[in-house]
Amino acid sequence: MNKLIIIKYGELTTKGDNINYFIKMLKNDIASSLNGIESDITYDKGRMYIKSDESNYDVILDKLNHIFGIHEINVGYELPSNDFEEIKSSLIELIKDKSFKTFKVDTKRSDKNYPIKSMDMSRMLGGVVLQNVPDISVDVHNPDILINVEIRPNSAYIYFNKIKGLGGYPVGVAGKGMLMLSGGIDSPVAFYLAMKRGIRIEAIYFEAPPHTSEAAKNKVIELTRIMSTYSGYVRLHVINFTRIQEEILRNCPRDYLITIMRRMMYRISTVIAYRNNCKCLVNGESVGQVASQTLTSMMAINPVTDLPVIRPVACLDKLDIIEIAKNIGTYETSILPYEDCCTIFVPKHPVINPDKKLCEEYEKLYDFAPLIKEAIENEKVIKVDSKIKEEFSSIL
């Protein structure tokens, strides 16, 4: 018997003629994540298999838990034949060190010419387990241990309880998107959910020194680093928004400050997105959560971009967003008390139902085009991956 890791694809299997492309992308993502770990990765249209030294398995499993496109992970055993006696003796050997009171055997045959039908095989192997392990019983609904047996034309596999994968699509199969990243709770969750649909994310962050601190930027870099564990790396575009924000403050009515700021951010994000071959904007807007996220506000802000705007958390309850943030490891960083440029100048009564035509009139009060051009020309790009943590660990 050879020990190995078995990966099931889930949603990828619905891709028809494109399935090979999706599986190859998943293999590439896994291979990149396992760089430096000696391993052998093979696949077919139903499964992917990873073989490595057993001492590497814990590290490999942790990395697989951060890769989109994986429906299920199993640590299993490959048998050199599909002979029933071989399967029987191997199963007896594997269960002798396991502790359980109830069990179920589930058999699948990819080889439909195999002489024993799946249900008959499960029943026969269940009898083998009952004969060799005392004081146990079958529970087909909620067993302590699920024994999976897969029959292939020239081999068989045995594995036990599954590890749930992240699901979704491999990062990059849908192209790139430009995420408008703040230091709050919502945008990192949008980051995660967009990646789950196969979008490789580049992120854009608007800073406004001295109104925003270096710690606020480092907080965003740390959030980006956490997200890079799901995609290998992230390019973070840092835009100095100070002069634009100050001119908005001087020239526009206070209740329209946030709406005009968002329109300026959308314009800049669109230019940066096109320059980096991104096919959409992504943000953490949730319908009705704040004044700039009402449907009317979105109607007033959206027209400044011709890119589709993906809002993964648009219809999620705030508590659901917080739960996801905790699960993906961004929540504790997101609640650190460093304000971004969207919060430092929030008016007491921001407009809830802004008028697009009024926005256009207010923007004519000052020539913002040169400031937008200057901000774009002076962008700073940081390639963020897990190795960057040490540099910014002082903020945590």
Described by the principal axes of the CA atoms, the overall outline is: elongated
Say what oligomer this is: single chain
Q: Give the fraction of residues assigned to helices.
A: 25-40%
Structural class of the secondary elements?
Answer: alpha/beta
Number of helices: 14
The main pleated sheet reads as:
9 strands, mixed
Mean pLDDT: 92
Order of SSEs, N→C? Answer: EHEEHEHEHEEEEEHEHEHHEHEHHHHEH
Q: Tell me how many strands there are.
A: 15
As a whole number of angstroms, the C-alpha radius of gyration is: 26 Å
Distance between the amino and carboxyl termini: 46 Å
DSSP strand content: 15-25%
Unreliable residue stretches? 392-396
Report on this structure.
- The protein has 396 residues and is α/β, with parallel strands linked by helices.
- Helices cover 37% and strands 20% of the residues.
- Helix 5 crosses helix 10 (318-328).
Notable traits:
single chain, 396 residues, alpha/beta, nine-stranded mixed sheet, six-stranded mixed sheet, 14 helices, 15 strands, 37% helix, disordered C terminus
